[in-house]
Design goal:
The protein starts with a helix and ends in a 5-residue tail after the last helix. It has a two-stranded antiparallel ribbon with strand order 1-2. Strands 3-4 form a two-stranded antiparallel ribbon. By secondary structure, the chain is mainly alpha-helical. The chain is 60% helix and 7% strand. The protein has 14 helices and four strands.
């Protein structure tokens, strides 16, 4: 909103300072500051309001130390996170940018699903919340929207790398003229729609999904939509499962968002994309503003969500954060990096699937169910081993930072 306003004022009146809003770095800094201020300043008021209305978490007794002390802690704090994202992006984002539009739709879409789930739990007193099939339908719907837009929108394009011959001429000690033919990769000047993605640890690290379908447009669309649905569903559910300890999901998500913001900036900058030999995606640099707002919202929410938590984000926050990360990665063609970058989410999800699957298998085979872990998701397993909650959370944060660093290193390890 302010981007377009100041661009107009700068064009008409040459207003001093108006040109600052044309810089992504300035608007990203403004977005992260504003989102931090919103969460920290309004967080206390929202917590007090939720307490007055008795909108608290209903804790099931799982035999975990300190668990019942959290009963009644205000929940649905994800609303605060969403507001801290949407307000800065609407103010400082380039709203006619297709990637910003996709992220706004994804944020609102998943926010509504999570809000409905929390509403049923808190106000209808149904512990299970929204039925699982309805959550899946919502996630599939978002994957369909994102996949279709990425395939067919004329505003979503990439510039491929092309090979340019380089002829080097030099003279040896005897005065003979010698030539050397080499090749180098350069970013093409032509933009085109594509279903390309990035494969880590491979020299020519770009892969187009249409190779798997023989170039058939309909089959390529179906495949890409299927990938989008899988990514959105897996990451959003993984983030939801991770949100089980004070500050865990918030702190784990912050490094992920930071790395995605860096990758968006590099992919959207033709000079850096050419230097790093990565895919150049025109317009994707604007996603840095969104990533900055999300990072500020997460860090600001951690102010109240760290141990002992004064507020929980609920499914309103966890489903939204996971889905936002998934759609963001799809926009910058880095979805195949998510198993590494979101390794905590992946392991938490696998721990639940393995626990449930092994329990059912052993019950059929031996007549009684057996467990791999003391309790799933994985963070509860460590609680059962009598590790302090803060130690578990801090170690998960450290692992998330390590995975984030490794993900960035994949830019050069091929």
């Amino acid at each position: 909103m302010l981007y377009h306003l100041f661009k107009h004022l700068d064009t008409l009146y040459d207003l001093p300072g108006a040109g600052m809003f044309q810089y992504i770095s300035f608007r990203a800094a403004a977005a992260i500051i504003l989102s931090l201020l919103i969460t920290i300043v309004f967080g206390r008021k929202i917590i007090n309001m939720l307490r007055r209305k008795q909108i608290g978490e209903d804790i099931r007794d799982l035999g975990l130390e300190g668990q019942l002390q959290k009963k009644g802690t205000p929940t649905m704090g994800g609303v605060l996170i969403l507001l801290s994202i949407l307000v800065p992006v609407l103010l400082f984002g380039q709203l006619d940018n297709i990637y910003i539009q996709l992220m706004l739709v994804s944020t609102v879409w998943l926010g509504l699903i999570g809000f409905l789930d929390d509403y049923i739990k808190v106000f209808r007193h149904h512990k299970e919340g929204l039925k699982g099939r309805f959550k899946i339908i919502g996630q599939v719907g978002l994957g369909l929207i994102v996949g279709t837009t990425m395939c067919f929108s004329p505003d979503i394009v990439v510039r491929e790398k092309t090979i340019e011959p380089v002829r080097t001429v030099f003279v040896d000690e005897q005065g003979n003229t010698l030539t050397e033919q080499t090749r180098r990769y350069v970013v093409s000047t032509e933009s085109r729609r594509s279903t390309q993605t990035t494969i880590p640890f491979v020299k020519d690290n770009e892969f187009d999904y249409n190779r798997l379908t023989g170039g058939n447009a309909a089959l390529t669309w179906m495949l890409y939509v299927l990938v989008a649905i899988l990514v959105v569903t897996a990451v959003s559910n993984g983030a939801n499962l991770t949100d089980g300890l004070d500050g865990l999901a918030t702190g784990v998500s912050a490094p992920i968002v930071l790395v995605l913001g860096i990758l968006a900036y590099l992919s959207g900058h033709i000079v850096y994309a050419d230097y790093l030999n990565i895919m150049y995606i025109p317009g994707s640099g604007e996603l840095v503003v969104f990533a900055a707002a999300l990072a500020g919202a997460l860090v600001g929410f951690l102010w109240y969500n760290s141990f002992p938590a004064q507020i929980f984000m609920g499914d309103t926050g966890s489903l939204s954060i996971g889905g936002i990360i998934a759609v963001f990665a799809l926009c910058i063609r880095k979805e195949l990096l998510l198993p590494l970058l979101c390794g905590i989410f992946l392991v938490e999800s696998l721990s639940v699937m393995l626990q449930v699957g092994y329990f059912k298998y052993t019950k059929r085979k031996y007549g009684e169910g057996r467990r791999i872990l003391l309790m799933s998701p994985l963070h509860h397993h460590y609680q059962k081993k009598n590790l302090f909650e803060t130690k578990i959370v801090t170690r998960f944060w450290i692992i998330s930072l390590l995975l984030a660093a490794i993900t960035l290193v994949t830019l050069k390890i091929r």
